C-alpha cells in the first residue's frame, strides 16, 4: 500500500525560501551610550535584588511575628515580598542583560537524522548475535534448559517481595466490617460532638440533630473509623408530611426519623438539611435526598436512598436504636448485598 | 586580582577535565542553539516551579509530622484550643503560627504546586497545537504526559497531608471511588487505608509517596525529558531559513544561560509575591478532619476539579432508569465508575496516544522539526479545542455550587445544562474551530494572491476606481505559502492484480477513513503558478504611470487650494 500522499513539489513548483531575515541591530548594538544605559539598568535591577535580601533579613530578625492570624500575615507579607524582590531583581536583570547586550543575531546549525547508520545497526545486531551464541542462549550449542529456567525464575522472583509487601498493607483484610456499625438494639442516640443524650421531647418539629451513638466519644480504639460509619441525622417532621415506607412502619417515632449521614454516592457526610423541602443535600456532589419519603434520591449522582436507622423511645424517654442499620452504609461496593448480613433481604425494600 | 582568578579557574578546569573529560561536553553544550519564542518558556515555568517545590518542601519537611495519632491542641491559636486533632494537623498549625517563615513556606509550596500543574497543562497544549509531538518526539510526548499524571499525584498526595476537614473529605471521595471498582474495590480500599477508612496509617503512607516516590519519579523523568530535548534539538516556528534540517537560534551560553537562568528567578519571585499576599489553604479555618461535618462550597485544588465535576455531572437515575445495577446480587456502580474511572481513562488515553493516532492519518514518516501554525492543521486544532472544552465543562461543573451562588442560578438547572453541554459543546467547538482554521488559511491565500489593502484609492483614466494592494514581502509570503499540503490517502484495492486478497485490509481501511477525517476538508497553499498569474492580473489592473502622475498633480493642486483658503481665512 502506498502512503505517498506527500508529493514533493519540484523546484519550479516551489516558492523559494528567502532565508533567515536580515538582522536588525538594536540601539545598544550601534550606540555606545544606549549600551551603557542598558548596563546601568541591569546593575540597578541587581541592586534591587540586594535590597530585597536585606528586606527579608531585616524582616526576619526585626519583626515580631506575634501569634494572631493578622500579625502572622504581615510578617509573611514582609518576608515574602523581600524574597520576591531578591529573586525578581536577579531574574529581570539577567533577562534585560541578555536582551540588550548579548548576541541577538541568530545562528544556524544543521540537524542530523537521529537514525543510526546502516553499518552501526548491522554492527549492533552482529554483536548481539555473537553474545547470544557466546552465552549458549542460541546458536549451535543451544542450552534451552537454561533459558526456560531463568525466565521462570525471573518471572516469579518479584512475588517473593511483592506478596508480603502488598499482603501486609491491608491489615486483616476483613472487609465485612463495612457491614457493621456501633448501632445495636438499645444504643442511645447522642449529640455530635459532645455525646449528650437526646430525649424525644427535645426534638421539635423541623429541627435536625447530628447524631453519634452513645459511647463513641469514650472509645479507646478506632473511634474515627466507627464515627465515619455511624453518624446519623435525626429530624422530626410533621407526621402528616411523612410517607412511611412499607415494612418500616415502626422504625420512626411520632414523625422522628433517623438516616445515615454517609452519602450512598461516594461517602461524603450529607450535612445540609433544608427544613422547608425536607431535602438533605450532600455538598460534595449535590446528591439530594427526600427525608419525608424514605430519603429517596431526588437529584444528583447517588442512586440508593440513605439507609434508615430504626429507632424507638426507651422507658426514660431517650431515643434508642432498635438495631444496627439493615444494610451497609455509605458508597456502593461490589459485594455489598452479599456476605454474612442476615438482614440482607431487607435491602430490596427500598426501590 | 582578575589574573589571579583566571589562573585559579584555569587550574580548577584542568583538574576536573583531566579526571572527567568534561571539556568535550562543555564544548558540545555551550554553543548549542535554541530557537527563540515566548511559548517555549511554558515548560520552563513548570520546571522552575518544581525546583521551588523542592526548595520549599525541604523547609516544610523539617516541621511536618506525618502522624495520625490524636492530640489535643494547646498552641497559640484560640479558635482551636482544646480541639482534638491528628499530629499531622497540629504540626501544620505549629509550622504556620509558631515557626517564623513557616506560613510563607507553606504558601510558597502550595502556590508553586498550582503553578506547576497549570504550567504543565498549558505547555502540553502548546506542544499539541503546534504539532511538536510529531516524529521524532512521540516518546518525549509520552514522557511529558506521564509527568503530567505524576504532577496530579504529587498535588493530591500533598493536598491531603495536613489532615484538615476539606482534604479528609477528598480522601473519603477517593475511598468511595475505589470501592466502586468491580470485584476488587473493597480490597483495594483496605490495601490503601490499611484497614477501614480513614485508619491511622494513611498520612504516613501519603507522606512517603509525596516526598520520595512521586518526586523521585518526576526528577528521573524530567532528566529524561530534557535529555531528549537536547538529543532532538528544539523545534522551531516556521519562517525564512528555518527547515526540518536545521536549527536557527541563539547559543545556550551565554544567551539562554542568562534568559532561562534569569527566568527561574522571575518564576520564583512571582510565586513569592503570590505567597506573600494571597492566603491559600487556610486549614486553621477548616479545622481538623472529622467524618461528620462538611462545609458548603467544598472545592478541591483546581487540577482535581474535573474529576469532581464529572462525579457531580453523572446522574444516579436517568428518568426511571438506575445507573447503579444489581446483577445476581453484585453491585455495579456506573454512576461512579463512568465519571471517575472510565471517562478520565479514555480522556487520558486519547492524550497519551495522540501522536500515533495522527501519524496513522498522515502516513508521514519524516522527521518534523518546524512547528505547524495551528491554522494549518485544522482538524488537529479542532480536536484540541474540543478536548479543552470537554475538560472545562467538567471543571465548571466541579464549581457549580459557586457559579450558582454567584449568578443566582438554580443548581439543578445548571447541572442539567452541563449534562447536555458535555455532549453538545465539544463537537460544536470542534466544527467551529476547524471552520475558523480553514477560514484563516483562505485568508492567507487571499493575502498571498492579492496583497495587503493599503487604503489608497486610485481612479483609472477610463473612470474605474480601485484600491491599491501592496504585495507581501518575501518573509511574509514564505510564511503563508510554506506548509505541507497533505491529501487523504485511499485504501488499496482489496485484491491485487493477481486476484490475491491483501492482508490487513480492516486496518488499512480504518487508516484511510481516519485520513479522510483529517484531510478531506483542506485549503491548499498557493502555488507559484497561481501566484504568477495573480501578479500578472494585478499588473493589468494597476494604475498606469500617467494616471499616477495625474493623481499627484491633482493632489498638489488640492494642497495649493487649501493653502490659499487658509491664507484667506487669516486675512
From TrEMBL, chain A:
Q: Which cofactor does it need?
A: [2Fe-2S] cluster
Q: Where are the transmembrane segments?
A: 43-63, 75-98
Q: Which UniProt keywords apply?
A: 2Fe-2S, Cell membrane, Disulfide bond, Electron transport, Iron, Iron-sulfur, Membrane, Metal-binding, Oxidoreductase, Respiratory chain, Transmembrane, Transmembrane helix, Transport
Query: Annotated region Disordered: where?
Result: 1-35
Give the residue range of the signal peptide.
Answer: none
For bias type Basic and acidic residues, the affected ranges are: 1-20
Which InterPro entries does the record associate with it?
A: QcrA_N (IPR045603), Rieske_2Fe-2S (IPR017941), Rieske_2Fe-2S_sf (IPR036922), Rieske_Fe-S_prot (IPR014349), Rieske_Fe-S_prot_C (IPR005805)
UniProt topology in membrane: Multi-pass membrane protein
What is the protein name stated in its UniProt record?
Answer: Cytochrome bc1 complex Rieske iron-sulfur subunit
Species, as recorded: Demequina zhanjiangensis
TrEMBL record, chain B:
Q: Which cofactor does it need?
A: heme
Task: List each copy of the Cytochrome b/b6 N-terminal region profile domain by range.
Answer: 12-238
Q: What is its EC number?
A: 7.1.1.8
**Annotated region (Disordered), positions in chain:** 537-571
The regions listed as transmembrane in this protein's record are 40-64, 108-129, 141-161, 206-231, 260-281, 332-357, 377-396, 416-433
Q: Does the keyword Membrane apply?
A: yes
Instruction: Return the PROSITE patterns for the record.
Output: CYTB_CTER (PS51003), CYTB_NTER (PS51002)
Class of enzymatic activity (EC top level): translocase
Matches recorded under Gene3D superfamilies: Cytochrome Bc1 Complex, Chain C (1.20.810.10)
Q: Where in the cell is it found?
A: Membrane
Q: How does it sit in the membrane?
A: Multi-pass membrane protein
Read off the InterPro entries from this record.
Cyt_b/b6_C, Cyt_b/b6_N, Cytb/b6-like_sf, Di-haem_cyt_TM
Give the record's keywords alphabetically.
Answer: Electron transport, Heme, Iron, Membrane, Metal-binding, Transmembrane, Transmembrane helix, Transport
Q: Which domain of life is it from?
A: Bacteria
The Cytochrome b/b6 C-terminal region profile domain extends over 239-440
- List where Basic and acidic residues composition bias occurs: 556-571
Catalysis: reaction(s): a quinol + 2 Fe(III)-[cytochrome c](out) = a quinone + 2 Fe(II)-[cytochrome c](out) + 2 H(+)(out)
Q: Which PANTHER family match?
A: CYTOCHROME B (PTHR19271)
Indicate what this protein is called per its UniProt record: Cytochrome bc1 complex cytochrome b subunit
Amino acid at each position: 500500500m502506498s502512503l505517498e500522499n506527500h508529493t514533493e513539489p519540484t523546484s519550479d513548483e516551489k516558492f523559494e525560501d528567502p532565508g533567515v531575515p536580515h538582522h536588525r541591530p538594536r540601539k545598544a548594538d550601534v550606540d555606545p551610550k544606549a549600551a551603557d544605559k542598558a548596563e546601568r539598568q541591569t546593575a540597578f535591577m541587581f541592586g534591587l535584588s540586594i535590597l530585597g535580601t536585606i528586606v527579608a533579613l531585616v524582616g526576619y530578625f526585626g519583626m515580631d511575628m506575634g501569634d494572631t492570624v493578622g500579625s502572622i500575615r504581615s510578617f509573611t507579607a514582609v518576608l515574602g515580598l523581600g524574597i520576591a524582590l531578591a529573586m525578581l531583581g536577579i531574574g529581570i536583570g539577567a533577562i534585560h542583560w541578555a536582551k540588550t547586550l548579548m548576541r541577538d543575531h541568530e545562528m544556524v546549525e544543521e540537524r542530523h537524522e537521529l537514525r543510526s547508520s546502516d553499518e552501526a545497526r548491522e554492527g549492533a545486531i552482529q554483536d548481539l548475535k555473537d553474545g547470544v551464541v557466546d552465552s549458549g542462549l542460541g546458536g549451535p550449542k543451544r542450552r534451552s534448559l537454561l533459558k526456560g529456567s531463568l525466565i521462570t525464575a525471573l518471572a516469579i522472583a518479584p512475588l517473593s517481595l511483592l506478596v508480603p509487601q502488598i499482603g501486609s498493607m491491608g491489615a486483616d483484610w476483613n472487609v465485612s466490617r463495612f457491614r457493621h456499625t456501633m448501632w445495636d438494639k438499645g444504643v442511645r442516640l447522642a449529640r455530635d460532638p459532645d455525646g449528650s443524650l437526646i430525649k424525644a421531647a427535645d426534638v421539635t418539629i423541623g429541627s435536625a440533630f447530628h447524631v453519634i451513638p452513645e459511647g463513641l466519644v469514650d472509645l479507646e480504639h478506632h473511634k474515627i473509623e466507627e464515627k465515619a460509619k455511624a453518624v446519623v441525622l435525626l429530624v422530626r417532621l410533621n407526621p402528616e408530611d411523612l410517607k412511611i415506607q412499607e415494612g418500616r412502619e415502626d422504625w420512626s417515632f411520632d414523625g422522628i426519623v433517623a438516616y445515615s449521614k454517609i452519602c450512598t454516592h461516594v461517602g461524603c457526610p450529607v450535612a445540609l438539611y433544608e427544613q422547608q423541602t425536607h431535602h438533605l443535600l450532600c455538598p460534595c456532589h449535590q446528591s439530594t435526598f427526600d427525608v419525608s419519603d424514605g430519603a429517596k434520591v431526588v437529584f444528583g449522582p447517588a442512586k440508593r436512598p440513605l439507609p434508615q436507622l430504626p429507632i424507638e423511645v426507651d422507658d426514660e424517654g431517650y431515643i434508642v436504636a432498635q438495631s444496627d442499620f439493615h444494610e451497609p452504609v455509605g458508597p456502593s461496593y461490589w459485594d455489598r448485598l452479599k456476605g454474612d448480613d442476615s438482614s440482607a433481604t431487607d435491602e430490596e425494600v427500598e426501590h | 586580582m582578575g589574573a589571579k582568578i583566571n589562573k585559579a579557574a584555569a587550574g580548577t578546569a584542568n583538574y576536573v577535565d583531566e579526571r572527567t573529560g568534561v571539556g568535550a561536553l562543555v564544548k558540545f553544550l555551550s554553543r548549542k542553539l535554541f530557537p527563540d519564542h515566548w511559548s517555549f518558556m511554558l515548560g520552563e515555568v513548570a520546571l522552575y516551579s518544581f525546583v521551588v517545590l523542592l526548595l520549599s518542601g525541604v523547609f516544610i519537611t523539617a516541621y511536618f509530622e506525618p502522624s495520625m495519632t490524636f492530640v489535643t491542641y494547646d498552641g497559640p491559636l484560640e479558635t482551636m484550643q482544646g480541639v482534638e486533632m491528628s499530629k499531622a494537623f497540629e504540626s501544620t498549625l505549629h509550622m504556620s503560627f509558631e515557626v517564623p517563615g513557616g506560613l510563607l513556606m507553606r504558601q510558597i509550596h502550595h502556590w508553586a504546586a498550582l503553578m506547576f500543574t497549570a504550567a504543565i497543562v498549558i505547555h502540553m497544549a502548546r506542544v499539541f497545537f503546534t504539532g511538536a509531538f510529531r516524529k521524532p518526539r512521540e516518546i518525549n510526548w509520552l514522557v511529558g504526559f506521564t509527568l503530567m499524571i505524576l504532577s496530579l499525584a504529587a498535588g493530591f498526595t500533598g493536598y491531603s497531608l495536613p489532615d484538615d476537614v476539606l482534604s479528609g473529605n477528598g480522601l473519603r471521595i477517593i475511598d468511595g471511588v475505589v470501592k466502586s471498582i468491580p470485584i476488587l474495590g473493597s480490597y483495594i480500599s483496605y490495601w490503601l487505608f490499611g484497614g477501614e477508612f480513614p485508619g491511622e496509617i494513611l498520612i504516613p503512607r501519603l507522606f512517603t509517596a509525596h516526598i520520595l516516590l512521586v518526586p523521585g519519579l518526576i526528577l528521573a523523568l524530567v532528566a529524561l525529558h530534557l535529555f531528549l530535548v537536547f538529543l532532538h534539538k528544539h523545534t522551531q516556528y516556521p519562517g525564512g531559513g528555518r527547515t526540518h534540517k536545521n536549527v536557527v537560534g541563539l547559543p545556550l551560553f551565554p544567551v539562554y544561560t542568562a534568559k532561562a537562568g534569569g527566568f527561574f528567578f522571575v518564576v520564583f519571585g512571582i510565586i513569592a509575591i503570590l505567597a506573600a499576599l494571597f492566603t491559600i489553604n487556610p486549614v486553621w479555618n477548616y479545622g481538623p478532619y472529622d467524618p461528620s461535618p462538611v462545609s458548603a462550597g467544598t472545592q478541591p485544588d483546581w487540577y482535581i476539579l474535573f474529576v469532581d465535576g464529572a462525579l457531580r455531572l453523572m446522574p444516579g437515575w436517568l428518568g426511571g432508569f438506575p445507573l447503579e445495577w444489581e446483577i445476581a446480587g453484585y453491585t455495579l456502580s456506573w454512576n461512579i465508575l463512568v465519571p471517575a474511572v472510565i471517562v478520565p481513562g479514555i480522556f487520558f488515553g486519547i492524550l497519551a496516544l495522540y501522536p500515533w493516532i495522527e501519524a496513522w492519518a498522515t502516513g508521514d514518516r519524516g522527521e518534523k522539526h518546524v512547528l505547524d501554525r495551528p491554522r494549518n492543521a485544522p482538524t488537529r486544532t479542532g480536536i484540541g479545542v474540543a478536548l479543552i472544552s470537554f475538560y472545562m465543562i467538567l471543571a465548571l461543573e466541579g464549581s457549580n455550587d459557586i457559579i450558582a451562588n454567584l449568578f443566582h442560578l438554580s443548581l439543578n438547572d445548571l447541572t442539567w445544562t452541563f449534562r447536555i453541554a458535555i455532549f453538545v459543546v465539544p463537537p460544536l467547538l470542534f466544527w467551529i474551530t476547524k471552520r475558523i482554521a480553514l477560514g484563516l488559511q483562505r485568508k492567507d491565500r487571499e493575502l498571498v494572491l492579492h496583497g495587503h489593502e493599503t487604503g489608497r484609492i486610485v481612479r483609472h483614466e477610463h473612470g474605474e476606481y480601485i484600491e491599491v494592494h501592496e504585495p507581501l514581502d518575501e518573509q511574509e509570503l514564505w510564511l503563508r505559502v510554506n506548509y505541507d499540503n497533505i491529501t487523504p490517502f485511499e485504501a488499496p484495492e482489496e485484491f491485487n492484480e493477481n486476484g490475491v486478497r491483501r492482508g490487513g485490509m480492516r486496518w488499512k481501511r480504518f487508516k484511510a477513513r481516519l485520513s479522510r477525517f483529517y484531510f478531506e476538508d483542506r485549503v491548499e497553499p498557493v502555488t507559484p503558478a497561481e501566484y504568477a498569474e495573480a501578479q500578472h492580473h494585478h499588473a493589468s489592473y494597476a494604475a498606469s504611470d500617467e494616471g499616477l502622475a495625474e493623481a499627484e498633480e491633482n493632489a498638489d493642486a488640492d494642497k495649493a487650494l487649501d493653502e490659499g483658503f487658509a491664507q484667506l481665512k487669516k486675512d
